[in-house]
Amino acid sequence: MATSKPAASRSGRRRSAGRPANSTSVGGVAILDATLEILRLTPPEKVTVVDVAAAAKVDPALVRYYFKSRQGLLRAAVAHMLEDVQAKSRPIVSEETTLEQRLRGRLRLLITVLRDNPYLLRLVLSEIYNGSASSRDDEVLRGIALDGVSLSQALLAENSSFAASERVDPRFLHIAILGICTFFIEAKPLLGVLFDEDVKLDKLTEQYIDFATSLILDGIVNDANNRGKTDPAKKGKSSKRAAVG
Fold first, then answer.
1. DSSP letters of the chain?
2. Which end of the chain is more exposed for a tag (fewer CB within 10 A), N or C?
């Protein structure tokens, strides 16, 4: 009596590990975009691989193929968003205009992104800043941090009044800008206490951006001017060291 062949023999060789069979042409970027759309309205802890797969119209196995795990997906999603924000920031900070206008544009973009993505800060803290690897060995964190500093360096490009880039530390400026923008968004309950309820959030946001721009700009100008005012003795020593170096 004839016997049927084993299933493996009938189907040929077993498929090697890799992209799931019968998967669509959807790539990793499309899956990240679907993840970020979900995260606009859903807390990170409630986002699942199945939810993302359904939104991207792919098999959950394809999500795992690209990102290995739920945590890998969330980390990649927030890194993708930060890279996009930095890409949008570059033309703003590199415009041939005044430092004040460039600074205001940078603040407005960050605050708008944070307002439109209420869980972004939580994601950055949990998936990027508090990652498992040490900060200096974390390539994702290092890349995002250094790109952010480069934006501050571009912001401080040579001005007609002073060479800010030579006297103001762009690393501190980067940290200050992030802090000023993130706390404003996270402090909504505080805003409700300090300001009248009839003040619209959009108007209040513009007032805050104007205030923050003036605050940072005054600090940059004053810091640059103060650093430029060195006493003759110290200035002489610095010149000698520069000549030796």
1. ---PPPHHHHT-SPPPSSSPTT--S--HHHHHHHHHHHHTTS-GGG--HHHHHHHHTS-HHHHHHHHSSHHHHHHHHHHHHHHHHHHHHHHHHTSSS-HHHHHHHHHHHHHHHHHH-TTHHHHIIIIIIT-SS-TTT-HHHHHHHHHHHHHHHHHT---SS--HHHHS-HHHHHHHHHHHHHHHHHTHHHHHHHS-TTS-HHHHHHHHHHHHHHHHHHHHHHHHHHHH---HHHHHHHHHHHHH-
2. N
